[in-house]
Amino acid sequence: MAFDIEMIKGVYAKMAERVDTARDLVGKPLTLSEKILYSHLWEGTPTKAFERGKHYVDFAPDRIACQDATAQMALLQFMQAGKDKVAVPTTVHCDHLIQAKEGAAKDLKHANDVSSEVFNFLESVSNKYGIGFWKPGAGIIHQVVLENYAFPGGMMIGTDSHTVNAGGLGMVAIGVGGADAVDVMAGMAWELKFPKLIGVKLTGKLSGWTAPKDVILKVAEILTVKGGTGAIVEYFGPGATAMSCTGKGTICNMGAEIGATTSTFGYDESMERYLRATDREDVADAANKVKEYLTADAEVYANPEQYFDQVIEINLSELGPLLNGPFTPDLSTTVGTEMTEKATANDWPLQVEWGLIGSCTNSSYEDLSRASSIAQQALDKGLKMKSELGINPGSEQVRYTAERDGILGIFENLDAKIFTNACGPCIGQWARYSDPKNAPKNSIVHSFNRNFAKRADGNPNTHAFVASPEITAAIAIAGRLDFNPLTDSLINEDGQEVMFDEPTGWELPPKGFEVKDNGYLAPEEDGSHIKVVVNEDSERLQLLTPFTPLGRTITGAKLLIKAFGKCTTDHISMAGPWLRFRGHLDNIANNTLIGAVNAFNKKTNFVKNQLTGEYGGVPATQREYKAAGIKTVVVGDHNYGEGSSREHAAMQPRHLGVAAVIVKSFARIHETNLKKQGMLGLTFANEADYDLIQEDDTFNFLDLNEFAPDKQLTIEIVHADGSKDVIKVNHTYNQPQIDWYNEGSALNLIKKENAA
Ligand code: SF4
User: Fold this and answer.
1) Is 644 a catalytic residue?
2) Are residues 474 and 582 part of one domain?
3) Quick check: is 386 in a domain?
4) Which of 28, 151, 468, 593 is the most exposed place for a label (fewest CB within 10 A)?
């Protein structure tokens, strides 16, 4: 059995005491989000109330989920921790590295051919360290997690931003960087700023063409892509309980598109039905016994304004189908004439080339069955597809069941392509063009979550619009972006005018779920004999060697780059074609800071080598300093390292020999990542000192031997003309973090403690 009922029962056994104590400490009724947070404190039973949006708190998550692209570096790091097994239940899912091109069978074979090295590595590490492994083709991480692992009241972290999908089954599930996941795998706490809380009250009931997807498209319109930042969105009200569990998953999934920490729903009958349908009777029985702790206190939902930081109300009976896009998921347009007007005014192509149904957002049995009811009508009413249609089932269990029930056959009768149970076009793994950069302007509609430029097919001219699966099917059949299936007719093969009836479908398969091989490989009980083999010549994988401590004496360090303006994790470690090197630190280090703008010439990847006086690329210049045994310093502006939580942005400079990053301010996760890799992440005590830094500067750290919490450091900057400036820098290292620095990295310290 994939999931661990004893672990879940253990969580529930402690819940009552922890939640009741928290309620006393907070002094008022608790939301569901607070109940889950307070029952997962690292310290156990709460001893104080935390201030939302202010206090950093240590948590103890119940589970970890990793996808194949991010798992590589996470597991390579975990191997450094000197542990025999992961400390909490963990799974790895192979879903991102599979391209969509010709259809499932051929595409899966191709992926297994080109990425077998990565898949084999992930499988053997999983087997060795007690990690559940889901093979390529088994399904998309978040759908598989919902079907197998998510449970009401649980806390999970995952190395993917749409980990939040599990909120559909009442979890607090949060996307994190690999370094955070490694800490928890190694038995450490996970830190999070206690989130603010946004309540969304859903009244009325979804009906007709309106789907759960439209709820989150509406929320995205209201809150915009930044509106959920630092907050958990908690949905409640009669509209919430009337909705399917997988529909709730869709809503939580796209919470990532409004920047929310996560989203969640209280335990209800739809969740119980889903648990029982997915063979988890014992989880449903256990949840029923602690029901009152798996939803907010009644008073909270009766007077939400008193308990949430912000409250939004949406009447589902008045909500209509929406199309969000292009290029941003918060730009909402009502289907039909509003789209005609907007598309005409903005020159969006009205003709639709492709409809894509699937992704972790909308690939449940219910989604496929409702979309297929539209496809069946097209066949029955003699309509011909006006655009192409592609389907990505969310899991092998959904695919097998949908095939058994004739759902996939309906799509195939419309000449749809059934792609692998994987991310495919949702993550740019769509071989749509041979030369995407020069591909024509066009529109597509999909039921995915993200629609940024180039996201699906690499073509910057593709206008991607996000909709529910049933609207995607209808628009793909009609071939027009402004088709409104509620009011518009189409002309069929016989020249007759026909209209679609409302979609129909099943929340859960009437004959139950079925699957022959779900693609899961359980790890061996004792994996100590398993040898993880990484070929020394591999260009995609490289075993890590522990970082050497930088020491308490840093003098003669050279300036590598003074970054000008925005410097995000993408500028520090680019994605795109570099994705394939995510498991090979030395190779991916060749993209280090190539996107950062040099403050002295406003060019990217063009810095002065102080040893030669020549200008060159950042990684090559840095490698020359490293070869000469010279440490370097990176200087940056405000919010340095914003963007993703990828640890590569800290590991790469560290690997290449950068000792310190001195900036006006940091994005917090990146600052922590630098600390974890045993580097110095420092901020100018006087921001204006940024202007003192010149191109040929040398840095001498004057009092690093006194490195201590809450104590500024002093740096002497020697300029090319021999003049000097002495500046103060601040830091936020606490004593354990200074210990990471002393040992060379957090992992080195874990390994040392483990060996002791
Ligand atoms: Fe991410 Fe898309 Fe895969 Fe979901 S389907 S995990 S959003 S790439």
Assistant:
1) yes
2) no
3) yes
4) 28
What residue ranges line ligand 1, CB within 6 angstroms?
Answer: 95-96, 140-142, 160, 162, 359-360, 423, 426-427, 448-449
Helices (H), 479-606: 569-572, 585-588
Max Cα distance, the chain (Å): 87
Cross-strand pairs, 332: 324
Task: Look up 115 and say whether it is catalytic.
Answer: no
Residue 696 belongs to a domain: yes
Indicate if 594 and 465 belong to the same structural domain.
Answer: no
Ranges of the chain with pLDDT below 70: 1-3
Which atom number of ligand 1 is nearest to the Cα of residue 392? Answer: 5
Cα 483 to Cα 385: distance, rounded to the nearest angstrom: 14
ipTM score for this prediction: 0.99
603 and 750 fall within a common domain: yes
Integer angstrom CA distances of residue 568 from 346, 527, 595, 670, 682: 30, 39, 9, 9, 17
Residue 646 among the catalytic residues: yes
Cα of 115 from ligand 1 centre, angstroms: 18
Cα–Cα distance for residue pair 55/34, rounded to 1 Å: 14
* Amino acid type, 366: E
481-536 pLDDT per residue, tens: 999 999 999 999 999 999 999 999 999 999 999 999 999 999 999 999 999 989 99
Residue 721 is a catalytic residue: no
Residues 566 and 477 in one domain: no
Residues 465 and 589 in one domain: no
Q: Catalytic residue, from 63, 68, 93, 95: name it.
A: 95
Domain count for the chain: 2
- In this predicted structure, what is the pLDDT of residue 452? 87
Looking at residue 1, its pLDDT comes to 44
Q: Give the CATH number, domain containing residue 722.
A: 3.20.19.10
Question: What's the predicted TM-score (pTM) here?
Answer: 0.93
Residues 363 and 455 in one domain: yes
Q: Which DSSP letter does residue 500 get?
A: P
- Sole residue written with tokens 């790091």: 77
Distance CA 189, CA 111 (A): 36
CA of 238 relative to ligand 1 center, distance in Å: 29
Structural domain of 364: 328-429+440-484
Ligand 1 center–CA 394 separation, angstroms: 10
Task: Note if 446 is an active site residue.
Answer: no
- Asked, for residue 355, whether it belongs to a domain, the answer is yes
Same structural domain for residues 586 and 729?
yes
* Those residues with Cβ within 8 angstroms of residue 578's Cβ, 6 or more apart along the chain or in another chain: 588, 591
At 4 the pLDDT is 86
Pair 583, 465 in one domain: no
160: in domain: no
Considering only CA atoms, which of 743, 721, 557 is closest in space to residue 653? 557
| Separation between Cα atoms, residue 330 and residue 333, nearest integer Å | 10
- Residue 192 Cα to ligand 1 middle (Å): 23
Q: What is the pLDDT of residue 2?
A: 53
State the residue for tokens 């989604």. Answer: 367
Residue 640's beta-bridge partner residues?
Answer: 666
